[in-house]
Amino acid sequence: MAPSLASDVWGGRAVAFMPAGDLTASAWTADEAVTRLFASQYRPLVRLAALLLHDSSAAEEIAQDAFVALHERWGRLREPEKAVAYLRQTVVNRARSALRHRFVVDRFLRRQSEPMSVPSAESGALVNETNAEVLAAVRRLPARQQEALVLRYYADLSEAQTAEVMGVSQGAVKSHTARALAALRRTMEPLS
Amino acid sequence: MTPEDVLRQAFEAQADRVEFAPDALGSIRTRVGRRTHQRRFLTMSLASLATAAAATATAVVVGLASCVPPDTDTAPLQPGAPSGPVVPTSPSVPPHSGVIARLPIYYIGVDRGRPVLFREFHSQTLSEESLTTRMVEAVGIMLDGDALDPNYASSWPASASVRSVELDGKVAVVDLAGAAVNGADPATARAAVQQLVWTVTAVAADRGTQLDGVRLLLDGKPVTTLWGNVNVSGTLTRASAIETLAQLWLISPQEGDTVPGTFDVHLDGAVWEATAVLRIRNAAGAVVDEKTVTLDIGAPSRGEAFVTVTLAPGRYTIEAFSRSAKDGSIVGLDNHAITVS
After folding, report:
1. Residue A106: band (very low, low, confident or very high) from pLDDT cuts 50, 70, 90
2. Residue B59 belongs to what domain range?
3. Which of A17, B135, B189, B301 is the most buried (most CB within 10 A)?
4. ipTM score here?
5. CATH assignment of the domain containing A175
6. 0.80 exceeded by the pTM?
């Protein structure tokens, strides 16, 4: 059999978010929505969660949670554009909760035992020292500033989209981003 | 480079190191099915109670009894809806048993005479949950060389075993026994060392820990040259993906999987013009389907694609390959035998 046209095949953009406008479907069932959006959005969402959490195993769990929640909510969303925004929002919210939980556990463990010998993700080295320094500096920023940077400069969202995902005003996004960049400047100036 | 560009580059580099388990869509569908079932059961129970409230107490008992859930709580979303592959190496988790980890293991296969690495996920019960336990188990599985796919193998000597794996800051120190002698040719020997490095660093990355690399000890002692031809002094790092990994991976289903009639095929690779071919043969070897698959990004980057396939029950071989840009010949073939239930 000759190879068929690629039209029956749908792949996903693994590195960046597919522009929501590329998604065309208005009558998907919840199952179809999950299956189709999984192809294009799962990996970007896991990567987004991993950047927010610095933990890829928990990141997969969070991205999967978002799809389970999407299935439940599909009747109210119906549109892929809204669904993508909802998935991002869910991932950001759950990453926040996970970080809060981790903060509490870490504080408890610090009281209970000696520091772990396993290096944490923040001290884990990357091959590229510049990247490692930048990421370490990002991790020292307040959580909201980190979110703004990841959404703006990894997910490539606009200020308006970032505001929607973070549940804050555009002005707040602007100010989080500006403060974060100002705080990073000392680290980044010698590198740029 | 602007500060924004530096940030983008750092985020991309970190995001690229995320490792993915192979059956995420199956997990989501199972969880959705479980929630749907629980909701349905709750709704039916409440409805039954409401009806029963207007009737006799006996009717309440009958009403509830009629809502007893079926034995399985992982019913498909809808009749005929696709669900993820059933991986035979993933036994169900009995309550209070040890943690079952899915560990990424790299094996050596051959593409046009060149040793290249393929990855499989193997399930293993851990005696305790720690990164070093995961790395010890993963290296042990890798050294056993018992890949699910018969085309993959380990090129470490059969006598090799793990003494320990410890973390020294950003480096995993792997101590092996019985690994000093090996008859592998230089290219295969280098691939074997990369097998170890990719496996150990993938297990760590999977737990959110980015390592610089691996330091090798043989019988507790540092070693500078392995098998007479591979330099293993200092910290061993991942060689470039384009030179080390197979051009195309058929990630899911894995070899030997039993899958439902509709399932997803997951491909990952660095192929010319992002184009791969998916070919399905029946038990007699006849081609029953063949389609062109567009990965999300082309070589030299590694892209991926998910393709939903529907097949009648039976045994099949799924082949994934790309065509040579030069002469159209098949390159990077990866194939897995599966059963459709």
Report:
1. low
2. 24-65
3. B135
4. 0.75
5. 1.10.10.10
6. no
